[in-house]
From TrEMBL:
It comes from Xanthobacter autotrophicus (strain ATCC BAA-1158 / Py2). The modification 4-aspartylphosphate is found at D63. This is Response regulator receiver protein. One of its GO terms (biological process) is phosphorelay signal transduction system. It comes from the Bacteria.
Amino acid sequence: MPQAEALQPAPTILVVETDILVRHVIADYLRGCGYRVLEAATGEEAGLILDVEAEGIDIVLADAAATGDREGFALARWLRETYPHIDVVLAGSPAMAAAQATDLCEDGPAVDKPYQPQQLADRIRWLMARRGRNR
């Protein structure tokens, strides 16, 4: 059914990253991989985007080390409670609290920072395939 696949919208990833340079680089890379990418500088900004587009967002990629009421682990926890259909990928160093992250995203912090583009792309493809979504 190639025509049916062609009609499916590209999977959407919301990138939540405070560092504008890092956010733009990773967002551009993901767009080059064929994903629709939305960008937010903070968890609060991500919440505003989710208020409007939650049903169309497949994955939220966020920095696990970000702090605040709706940043890092707190953002992942809120996403799990509010939007359980959205997969969460937390990016962080291997030394981060993996046990805490495992409860919030699949298999703990899923990608290392600094971002390794191929590792990130592989992780997103795995999540999409696990839920039966393409790309």
